[in-house]
Amino acid sequence: MSESGDLRTDGFARYRGADPEWASARELGLKQLTEAFANLPHDPYAPGAGRFRRYSHAVYLPWTGELSWIPGRPDPEHGSLTEYFQDDYNPEYPQTLRYFPALPADLRGNALLNRMIRFDLERVGWLEELRRTPVCCGVHLVKLSVRDHRQAAVSSPNCLHQDGGSPAAFTFAHLIGCDNVLGGENVIASPDSAGRQPDDLPSTAVLARFTLTEPLDAYAVHDHRVSHYVSPVRLGEKPSAGERCVILIGIAPFVPRP
């Protein structure tokens, strides 16, 4: 897959969904993933933000190649919920344990989603800490959606940030679809830029600026070595609603919560 940046040497990398490696992968389950985004629940912690999401996590055993999904907490409305905790790394929800609707079983079995997870794991296998311990794979489906020109749908947090945790933590973002929106620019910057807006930084602190446009376009960051950001999205010029659909996959050594 072609890349811009090198994850091992630069702390970030880009991957192109149009590359031949993904030509057959599109047939594995892109339609099902697209349909899943059409029916995502609202983010229960951000009413009115234009944000919809599901979240589940799995454990990967590097020495066997086994990937096992962790059951969520039963919930009468969504089937199950998965806990999500970011310590103080998300300034909008410091020390807050949140619960998001989990991925349903049929989606966890989606062949393309599982190919993405293993693709990401292959890109971080050079790190010793991820070869000799169980690995946690947190899988987020996040949609930013707008219906009129007064709206702006925002990611969380709405600033440059790091996702926190282990120095062996990585975040991958895979675009599933993007239609009739303006914005959604990704920015990669120095780690000490966390908490700030990209336009407030000196040019030397900004490592890359780009926008994912094609299905399966992706990028990755080695969390403790950079900060990252995605700008809000607004409605484009077509009469239909606008949306940006991304699968975020967080990879880190598995540490059970007490």
UniProtKB/TrEMBL annotation:
Molecular function in Gene Ontology: dioxygenase activity
Keywords: Dioxygenase, Oxidoreductase
Keyword Oxidoreductase assigned: yes
Pfam families: 2OG-Fe_Oxy_2
Name the record gives this protein: 2OG-Fe dioxygenase family protein
Organism from which the protein derives: Actinomadura gamaensis
